[in-house]
Structure formats: structure tokens, C-alpha cells
Automatic annotation (TrEMBL):
PANTHER family: CHEMORECEPTOR GLUTAMINE DEAMIDASE CHED 1-RELATED (PTHR35147:SF3), CHEMORECEPTOR GLUTAMINE DEAMIDASE CHED-RELATED (PTHR35147)
Catalytic activity: L-glutaminyl-[protein] + H2O = L-glutamyl-[protein] + NH4(+)
Chain's role: Probably deamidates glutamine residues to glutamate on methyl-accepting chemotaxis receptors (MCPs), playing an important role in chemotaxis.
Name of the protein in question: Probable chemoreceptor glutamine deamidase CheD
The species this protein was found in: Uliginosibacterium aquaticum
């Protein structure tokens, strides 16, 4: 599948001469300026991208689970959890003296990577991650302007902070990968 762009309408892409590329592993979080590109790979995990069109700052989180239940005292937040990843975003939003509703959010991921296994559980982790991402954006009043959620395949995601563009490439899981994941050869 070709890469798909989730570009803010009417915005000129002014690529900087020098780019800092950051790769997020699961649980990763990064917030940066207009010289930043953030990349990650998703399965059942979810990424939220936030971007401020006037300040040209933004970030991405890559959370694995909706919540661990209790957030520790003192603000030692863990990006592996959706509710805590949003707390990390809120800290950066405060540091740049902006309001949450001035940012644009895009939400990606939450694939059901092992459909036959997930059917035996109350709800699959991808669905729960999607629900948490949507709930957090609503809680903080951040407008969601694009999303690409669910399904049963991997996604490669790239945010260009200088423009707010988010690029997505989605790949299906091959039958041999599914058989290995199920313990068959």
C-alpha cells in the first residue's frame, strides 16, 4: 500500500535544511520543534500526534496499554500507558504556554493483530487503546482532525513537525507470520 498523507489543509510544507529524526519504540514519547521528524511502527499500540500550527511544535506518543490504574505521585509518568502519555503531552503544552485546544490531534493504530486470540477475551488491547486515546483527547478538549484506526495490520507512522504532516504506510500480516504467531509453522 502506498503511503497516505494526513496533511493539514492549506498549509505549505517548508522542510528545514537540517532534520532531527527520532524513532519511538513502544512506550516512547517525544515533543519537539520545527526541525523534528518522529517515526514509529504500530500494531495494537496507539500513537497520538499533536501539532500546533502557529508555534510549529508537536509530538508523538506510542502507548502500549490504556492505563496501569494508579498514576504514581510526583508526576513520574510512563509513556507505555495512554493516560500517562497524555499527561506527558500536557506538561509540554504548558511549557510552550499554549492551550490544549490550539493543538491538532491525529490518532493511529489499535490493530487487532491476533483476531482469533482476541475473540476469546472480553475486548482486545487494540480496541481498549483506541478507546483510551479518544477519551483522552476529549477530556483535554484537543480537536481530532484525522484518524486511521483498527484493522489487522501493521502501520509505519511519520510526523513532520515543521508542517504537521503525518505519513502512514500500512502493511498486512502474511499468512506465515500469522501461523508463527499462533504457534504453527
Amino acid at each position: 500500500m502506498a503511503a497516505q498523507s494526513f496533511t493539514p489543509p492549506g498549509f505549505l510544507n517548508e522542510r528545514p535544511d537540517c532534520i532531527q529524526e527520532v524513532f519511538l519504540n513502544p512506550g516512547g514519547f517525544h515533543f519537539g520543534g520545527a526541525d523534528t521528524r518522529i517515526v514509529t511502527l504500530l500494531g495494537s499500540c496507539v500513537s497520538i500526534t499533536l501539532w500546533h500550527p502557529r508555534l510549529r511544535v508537536g509530538g508523538m506518543c506510542h502507548f502500549m496499554l490504556p492505563s496501569r490504574g494508579v498514576i504514581p505521585e510526583g508526576g513520574s509518568y510512563d509513556g507505555r500507558y495512554g493516560d500517562e502519555a497524555m499527561k506527558l503531552f500536557m506538561g509540554h503544552i504548558m511549557r510552550v504556554a499554549a492551550e490544549p485546544e490550539e493543538f491538532q490531534a491525529k490518532l493511529f493504530g489499535g490493530a487487532n493483530m491476533f483476531a482469533d486470540i482476541a475473540q476469546r477475551r472480553e475486548a482486545n488491547v487494540g480496541e481498549r487503546n483506541i478507546e483510551m486515546g479518544l477519551a483522552q483527547l476529549e477530556r483535554y478538549g484537543i480537536p481530532l482532525i484525522a484518524k486511521h484506526l483498527g484493522g489487522e495490520s501493521h502501520r509505519k507512522l511519520m510526523l513532520d513537525v515543521w508542517s504537521g504532516d503525518v505519513w502512514l504506510k500500512q502493511q498486512g500480516v502474511s499468512p506465515s507470520e500469522m501461523a508463527r504467531a499462533r504457534g504453527r509453522k
